[in-house]
Amino acid sequence: MTATIELSAHRLDAGARRLRDEVRAFLDDERAAGAFVPRCDAWMTVPDPAFSRRLAARGWLGMTLPRRYGGHERSPLDRFVANEELLAAGAPVAAHWIADRQMAPSILRHGTEEQRRRYLPAIARGECYFAIGMSEADAGSDLASVRTRARKVAGGWEITGAKLWTTGAHFAHAMVVLARTDGASTDRQTGLSQFIVDLPAPGVEIRPIRAVDGEHHFNEVVFDAAFVPADSMLGERGAGWSQVTAELAHERSGPERWMSTVPLLRAWAERQGGDPVAARELGRLTARAWTLRQLSLSVAATLARGRSPEVAAALVKDLGSRFEVDVVETVRRLAGIEPRGGGPGLEGLLADAVLHAPAFTLRGGASEILRSVVARGLGVR
Amino acid sequence: MNDELSEDVRAAVGAILDGRDAHPGDFDRPLWTDLAETGFHLLGVPEEVGGSGGRLRDLAVVADLTAFHASRVPVAEAAFLAGWLLGRAGLAVPEGLVVASLDEARRTTGLRLSGCLRTPWARHADHVVTIARSGGERVVAVVPTGGGVERARNLAGEPRDTLVLDHVAAIAAAPADVDAERLRERGALARSVQLAGAARAVLESAGRHITERVQFGRPLARFQAVQQQLAALAAEATAMRLSADAAVLAVEADAADAGIAVAAAKAGCSAAAHTVAAIGHQLHGALGYSQEHRLGAATTRLWAWREEFGGEAHWQDRLAAAVSASGPWWPLLTGGAR
């Protein structure tokens, strides 16, 4: 039993401060020009391709990618700073978020030279968006039980199956699909592979799934013997599980895992009316937010050192997503307003936050799964 | 914050503490002597005044480890507080055990001091460092102990005494830009580090217990409900440690966000102490509730330290006041004004 999760406090340097000021100035201009209205959970649910391209023009997409692939060779901590500013502002970053967060590093690491040249510069320009095809109807938390199969055919593969809860597939240019290439479903983690499927494609049907708020962010993506060429396999045949697991460290570790409702908290903080109960609760949430930011920063610093802090990322996501819900319930309890979908100000922010809250502790790994990961990381199980 | 030097300190202090039996009294003087021999009792205190030098983060390692081991030594009171006051005032560290009083004394004629001053560990101290005020002017003063100590204990049995001064002559004094509020901040930082150390002790003990304890024919660790609780405990303990470490680095750098960092760390660590202690006891079952078990040494410290130098409500209010004073919330969280 090891009593500690490996994580160590990190302080950002002066370069980070300069970048932060640049991003803030850009966001101030955008807001002033009416280019966006702050929204909760905007990284997941508010795509705006034009906004993504403007960020790309500033060099804030593909920040850590090598220059030869259109990137900017900045540190992962610079990327952390730019992203936390975008999240705190509730900016519409959903179009590029998944591509920039996990597909760019995954393609850089596992992709062929041709795949890198094809996708990475386009991601860095804000012109190529990705969806992630992991979950299925019968494979949610238990991802290893995926049933989607890829069958070897002349010149490539035929994919058959259905992915569920696929965020953004309706506007994505490509989707990464986890499918069984070898063995039977009882083989679990072995025999799985990843494919990059350009969208739209023949034999691939994208059906909208409306969330509890009536909005369309998710999809069911049905593959009916859809042909993909041999060179669309990402990484090694049969290595899909380990590749997906490495991706999860990126998927779970970012500041978006605690900041989805920060736009609401921020707006509430800035209109305190002298109620001492509300002030104390604001202090409580501020202390928690400060700590979560330090945790998130230290995970980013660990990633920047080339490590894959899977256990720490799971732990921080568990705490972070519970905080996101805590913010919603605290503001709701004390603000004395009624949520109004599509409405301005606090009412509108609260409406989105209340309706999206159930997803916070499910997506990217349900809290119970994350705690199992933590327990295993502590040597217990 | 895990640089090589800190790791060296961790290893050396660990070697002193590991395998040591719990001291029966309320002050483990042999341990204090061992720490003093290598200078670990006054790390982070400038060498010019007789401290051991080194960085605040190194002192934090000593505070963390002695808290983890529930050692009965006044690391926080001697180094974080008394040593810091002496360093600020440029006063030499006096002989023997030196601790600080948490309240400001009244300075009467000359350098004579009066007041009832909360002074943890005073009964064992040879000298006490205190802030003394006369009108708006403050000095740091050193007074000998002896005579007027009213004894009390916190929930963990640690000495939490009151030093009664009635026109006692200071043996040294010098002006310094400090007051009781800044001293309290310093104490809150120390307690945050210690709370995190005690939380780690609970986590380690719980992890060991559930892998060893067999019920229903299998170790408790095989039960998912138990695993989930341990993970929740680990999450809070890790958050405590990260916030305390980050606050130490902010204070060490004398950064603009140091005040926010300390307030957030103490508010967070005090608030999390209950969760950690409650889950810790739940996982240990009745066995952990006996005084013989080492769990209680950690949990009683959590219960005592969370209130000392301000509980979470105090620091939450401070944070809220900082928000309303500085305007925008997010810039405050990210390190000060733009």
From TrEMBL, chain A:
Residues 17-127 form the Acyl-CoA dehydrogenase/oxidase N-terminal domain. Residues 131-224 form the Acyl-CoA oxidase/dehydrogenase middle domain. It comes from the Bacteria. It comes from Allonocardiopsis opalescens. Belongs to the acyl-CoA dehydrogenase family. Keywords: FAD, Flavoprotein, Oxidoreductase. Pfam families: Acyl-CoA_dh_1, Acyl-CoA_dh_M, Acyl-CoA_dh_N. GO terms for molecular function: acyl-CoA dehydrogenase activity; flavin adenine dinucleotide binding. This is Alkylation response protein AidB-like acyl-CoA dehydrogenase. Residues 273-378 form the Acyl-CoA dehydrogenase/oxidase C-terminal domain. InterPro entries: Acyl-CoA_DH_CS, Acyl-CoA_Oxase/DH_mid-dom, Acyl-CoA_Oxase/DH_mid-dom_sf, AcylCo_DH-like_C, AcylCo_DH/oxidase_C, AcylCoA_DH/ox_N, AcylCoA_DH/ox_N_sf, AcylCoA_DH/oxidase_NM_dom_sf. One of its GO terms (cellular component) is plasma membrane. Its cofactor is FAD.
TrEMBL record, chain B:
GO terms for molecular function: acyl-CoA dehydrogenase activity; flavin adenine dinucleotide binding. Residues 23-67 form the Acyl-CoA dehydrogenase/oxidase N-terminal domain. InterPro entries: AcylCo_DH-like_C (IPR036250), AcylCo_DH/oxidase_C (IPR009075), AcylCoA_DH/ox_N (IPR013786), AcylCoA_DH/ox_N_sf (IPR037069), AcylCoA_DH/oxidase_NM_dom_sf (IPR009100). Coiled coil: none annotated. Keywords: FAD, Flavoprotein, Oxidoreductase. Residues 189-299 form the Acyl-CoA dehydrogenase/oxidase C-terminal domain. This is Acyl-CoA dehydrogenase. Belongs to the acyl-CoA dehydrogenase family. SUPFAM superfamilies: Acyl-CoA dehydrogenase C-terminal domain-like, Acyl-CoA dehydrogenase NM domain-like. Its cofactor is FAD. The keyword GTP-binding does not apply. PANTHER family: ACYL-COA DEHYDROGENASE, ACYL-COA DEHYDROGENASE FADE28. It comes from the Bacteria.
